[in-house]
Amino acid sequence: MLAIKIQIYAHKIISSKLWLLVCVDKPGLVARLAEKPLRLNAATLITGIPMQATSFQVTPRHNWTLAEVNALFALPFNDLLFQAQSVHRAHFNANEVQVSTLLSIKTGACAEDCKYCPQSGHYNTGLERERLLEVEKVLRQAAAAKDKGASRFCMGAAWSNPKQRDMPYLIEMVRGVKAMGLETCMTLGKLEPEQAHSLAAAGLDYYNHNLDTSPEFYGEIITTRSYQDRLDTLTHVRDAGMKVCCGGIVGMGESANDRSALLMQIANLPLHPESVPINMLVKVEGTPLENVADLDGFEFIRTIAVARIMLPQSHVRLSAGRSRMNEQMQALCFFAGANSIFYGDKLLTTENPAADADMQLFAKLGIVPEKRQDVSDEAHALALADAIKEQQNPPLYHAAG
């Protein structure tokens, strides 16, 4: 196929979407372009082709090949980020980030042997085990998260799967949080179809169930739950009418090919997840991965960018590991297409940047919390914006206490 050389010479913003004006050096097209300039949507896919020869694509795909994903990772860094930012602007406000809060509602003693997880009962990490939190405590935490500006409240339990005796309490939590005007999300392990339908009927908006890594590397990380178990749970969640939150963890010693294969698995699901958390491994003493080599920061940013290109309409969450990233690295992740974070000092049992640090970074970058459609949640977003403004103009002194 003859490649057409495309040279970008200008751009303009139309209705919050980036469109590219191009000139083409193939003589037969120049005259037609002169009569009617070509406007191409910026949701452009570059698969290892030099920047001058570009094919443009708008709609999400579900038929990615490993070679195509590897070609995206192999792009020059600036080309990859330009591509990801163009896709991002075609589907989202580039200066808005969705803000969630995550609470561990049941901690430790998990039967699974995930090598990255301090909550696994297979490893001695010094983590105190806690039973399922009382509903009232969960609702108090949700109210506090709402006051701080969170628009979504996520509840996580260290289980292989929820027991039937726990379902009434979980359903009451969902109903209570939903009544506050917050979006609801849970991660509870494997779900049976009837459990998924019960949670959906209670008002659960999102269910998180990560694939973690590629099918090929999966057995090196987890042996107590199969990859197919995870895919089956995602199917049950979709069938029940809930939205899906599904991503993975990088930096566990996997190969570059494994990172590509993970994103290919997610993008080739029948429907793209509405939310895709990309986690950088947080190494915890006592887990088998405590001494694994660190993943290069640029490789992590590339993973965010490729996820954005492959999953153009999904929220890509900059998730665990942010506490180890400086502001500049986080800013590059946002530029690469990350548009969701967890807000608060802890993610389940691992550290997260302090809330005031997030406020300050948002202010430096001109980022604001993503606004939801209903007035109540817009008020929550404005509350966070006010908190950001307050951090820019802090009081001269704090009372001793």
Structure description:
By secondary structure, the chain is α/β, with parallel strands linked by helices. The chain has 13 helices and 17 strands. The strands form 4 sheets. Strands 6, 7, 8, 9, 10, 11, 12, 13, 14 and 17 form a 10-stranded parallel beta sheet that branches. Strands 1-2-3 form a 3-stranded antiparallel beta sheet. It has a two-stranded antiparallel ribbon with strand order 4-5. α3 crosses α10 and α9 packs parallel to α10. The N terminus and C terminus are likely disordered.
Give a quick set of tags describing it.
10-stranded parallel sheet, alpha/beta, 3-stranded antiparallel sheet, 13 helices, disordered N terminus, disordered C terminus, 401 residues
Brief synopsis:
Helix content is 38%, strand content 18%. By secondary structure, the protein is of the alpha/beta class. Helix 11 links the parallel strand 13 (315-318) and strand 14 (340-342).
- As residue ranges, the low-confidence spans are 1-57, 345-352, 373-401
Q: How many beta strands in the DSSP annotation?
A: 17
The secondary structure category is alpha/beta
Head-to-tail CA distance between termini: 72 Å
Mean pLDDT metric: 77
The largest sheet, given as strand count, sense and whether it forms a barrel, is: 10 strands, parallel
Question: From N to C, what is the helix and strand string?
Answer: EEHEEEHHEHEHEHEHHEEHEHEHEEEHEH
Q: Strand fraction band?
A: 15-25%
Shape: globular
Helix segment tally: 13
Fraction of helical residues: 25-40%
Radius of gyration: 22 Å
